[in-house]
Design goal:
The complex is a heterodimer.
Chain A: H1 2-30, H2 39-52, H3 73-107, H4 112-126, H5 129-144, H6 182-219, H7 222-229, H8 234-256, H9 258-271, H10 277-284, H11 294-322
Helix pairs in contact in A: 1-2, 1-11, 3-6, 3-10, 4-6, 5-6, 5-9, 6-8, 6-9, 7-8, 8-11, 10-11
Chain B: H1 21-30, H2 33-50, H3 52-55, H4 91-127, H5 129-144, H6 147-157, H7 163-190, H8 193-200, H9 205-241, H10 254-263, H11 276-304
Helix pairs in contact in B: 1-11, 2-4, 2-11, 4-5, 4-7, 4-9, 4-10, 4-11, 5-7, 7-9, 8-9, 9-10, 9-11, 10-11
The chains are: A mainly alpha, B mainly alpha.
């Protein structure tokens, strides 16, 4: 098992290296600042700077950025943290609501509640996240005005002013206060609630249905009939016997879908002005916002690829933990 | 004691008439009202989208210049049934043209992706060995890029993006997902006894692949292709929301129509003062199409793979 995990991690690192080189080469070929230099040399400079963390500098003059020529990590790390919090809370919501949908179906199959939850799941998956985010904002602004509903603001991230390029830039939320300690946690939670729910809705729609069908399939298996014959309560049959097998399928599918969740998080981040990776990426992009910073885009691509690879690793390990039969040779 | 001869009278056993696979798929589909409704609605929507040249021959950029028709709400008087946008273009007509382009990108893109995925994934699962390893590691590498991030990058490099370019980009990327599913199915089927039996009878590789493996993988393939149509629409709309991808000045799609209207701000911060009908019409159509694709996909899944799925 340990050797398998080691091989799996090694494979992940190899893929990450290949991924970083492909993206780097892709840009090095097309963007003027790197034309004429051997791409391998530039790649080495870049990787070296990235790993050592001090000599890594953005080589291009970026007009809008006052810190041109400085290390990119201070620019990339805060958005990365925002996106990570958004992703984590959305994942928690996806798991919780998927379990609710599946459990309702297992206990009351075909009931009005089951049909309603299924209908909502289909609807959630059919509405693109950016559209759902705008609808949520519309409802919030109509009901609660520009300050939001109760503790939940319309947009923004505590302690960071909204990027001046988002939707309705600057009008919705002028730099919300951050505070420290418990106040900070409270502010982050209230600011993340609506975006996380928006991001989760679509994936609850997709994976909730997967978990539901996996659980119903397990409940028809002979071992469940045995468990019922032993006189166990239905609750115990579902939670202790059937759900463990159903969860293995669900967790595997959820983590392998992480690339899509990450991509959607960029749109949600943009709509709710969370100043996450989405806003940063669109800041750094060429065409609309002046010259591109290849190094910054590179770093963001590398981080997003890293997110996907690490999550698929975690997913594989979780599946192997949940269901020993699915332990594959990596 | 009955005589042996009387036993010729058959026992009252009801032996079900055997049906071919596709006939029983049809029967199972008929038993699902939701999936049938979704499929027929999808058929109607896609037919309307395909016939847009006949339905709305004036094209997507036809402007009604009279002042009355600037940003007009839906009305039954005066032929602009779903209203007009801020420069007097008919919202319904633009939505229909958007449906046409969204549909063609998604359907043609998914079709090409399915053929590519079937051939390359099938080959990978069938041949196994080093080819399989190289191919699947390549697929892993490609799918490591989050779809939306990759599409942002590619569409930026390909500006200006036409619907043809978008179709090709989606096809060349999305085949990896089909290939992964097909490869897994073919790989499992390859070790079944009926394949061994076919080989023992002297069947060639091509015959085994097309006559024995492919029909058994057809259910998986149809379901994957259907979900691909929805995936392409969703990704396309999201990328267009960011302002990349097909621009509504080039061709309207359901994605860029709703994104353009949304980008001017909906609710109280509406920069262009657009009416709700300008974004609700394309957005509602997009959601309806995606809803139908997903319900139809699940229905097809239940009909095609009765043992594997219950959704």
């Amino acid at each position: 098992m340990l050797a398998a995990v080691g091989r799996r991690i090694l494979l992940t690192l190899c893929l990450l290296a290949a991924f970083s080189f492909v993206t780097f080469y892709f840009f090095a070929e097309t963007e003027p600042p790197l034309k004429g230099h051997p791409p391998l040399h530039e790649y080495w400079v870049w990787v070296h700077g990235l790993v050592s963390g001090r000599s890594f500098e953005s080589l291009i003059f970026i007009p809008y950025r006052s810190t041109a020529g400085a290390s990119l990590w201070p620019i990339v790390l805060p958005p990365l943290a925002h996106t990570a919090v958004l992703l984590a809370s959305a994942m928690v919501l996806v798991v919780v609501f998927s379990v609710v949908i599946a459990y309702a179906a297992a206990r009351m199959r075909g009931s009005a509640l089951d049909v309603l939850l299924r209908g909502l799941a289909y609807l959630g998956w059919a509405i693109p996240a950016y559209l759902l985010g705008l609808l949520v904002q519309l409802v919030v602004s109509v009901v609660g005005g520009s300050r939001g509903i109760g503790p939940f603001p319309l947009a923004g991230w505590p302690g960071s002013c909204p990027a001046s390029i988002g939707l309705n830039a600057g009008e919705i939320s002028p730099c919300p206060p951050a505070g420290s300690g418990i106040a900070l946690v409270y502010h982050v939670l209230t600011h993340i609630a609506l975006p996380a729910a928006t991001l989760a809705a679509g994936f609850v729609g997709l994976h909730g249905r997967f978990l539901r069908s996996a659980l119903l399939e397990q409940l028809d298996a002979p071992y469940v009939a045995t468990a019922r014959m032993k006189g166990l309560t239905e609750r115990r049959v579902i939670l202790r016997h059937a759900s463990r097998n159903a969860l293995a399928t669900f967790v595997g599918a959820l983590f392998s879908d992480f690339g899509a969740i990450f991509g959607t998080a960029l749109a949600v981040d943009w709509v709710f002005q969370l100043n996450g990776i989405g806003a940063l990426l669109l800041h750094e992009f060429p065409q609309s916002f002046g010259p591109a910073d290849i190094y910054a885009i590179e770093l963001i691509l590398l981080i997003s690829g890293g997110f996907v690879l690490v999550s698929s690793l975690v997913g594989d390990l979780a599946v192997a933990g949940l269901d020993p039969r699915l332990r594959r040779e990596w | 004691m009955t005589a042996a001869g009387e036993r010729a009278d058959p026992l009252p056993l009801k032996i079900p008439r055997s049906r071919s696979y596709w006939v029983s798929v049809g029967h199972r589909l008929l038993l699902q009202p939701a999936a049938l409704t979704a499929l027929s609605l999808l058929g109607v929507l896609f037919t309307v989208g395909a016939l847009v040249h006949e339905i709305a021959p004036q094209g997507w950029n036809d402007i009604d210049l009279s002042a009355r028709w600037s940003n007009h709400a839906p009305t039954l008087a005066g032929h602009h049934y779903l209203g007009t946008d801020n420069i007097g273009r008919d919202v319904l007509v633009r939505m229909l043209w958007g449906l046409h382009d969204t549909e063609s990108v998604a359907l043609i893109g998914a079709a090409i992706a399915t053929v590519l995925g079937l051939l390359l994934g099938g080959l990978s699962g069938f041949r196994r060995g080093w080819l399989d390893v190289v191919m699947m590691r390549f697929v892993d590498l490609v799918t490591t890029f989050p779809v939306i991030v990759l599409m942002l990058v590619v569409f930026t490099l390909l500006e200006p993006v036409s619907t043809t370019k978008a179709t090709v980009v989606f096809a060349l990327y999305m085949w990896t997902f089909i290939a992964r599913v097909v490869r897994a199915r073919i790989f499992v089927l390859g070790s079944e006894e009926f394949v061994e039996a076919a080989r023992a009878l002297g069947a060639s590789d091509l015959r085994v692949f097309f006559k024995h493996l492919l029909p058994n993988a057809a259910g998986t393939l149809v379901v994957a292709a259907t979900s691909m149509v929805g995936q392409i629409m969703l990704v396309e709309a999201t990328v267009e929301f960011f302002g990349y991808g097909v621009n509504s000045l080039i061709r309207p799609t359901l994605g860029n129509l709703s994104a353009d209207a949304a980008a001017s701000g909906i609710g109280q911060y509406n920069a262009l003062g657009l009416g709700w009908w300008v974004w609700v019409t394309p957005a509602a159509t997009l959601v309806l199409v995606l809803l139908c694709v997903n319900i139809a996909g699940d229905g097809l899944d239940a009909a095609l793979n009765p043992r594997a799925s219950r959704r």
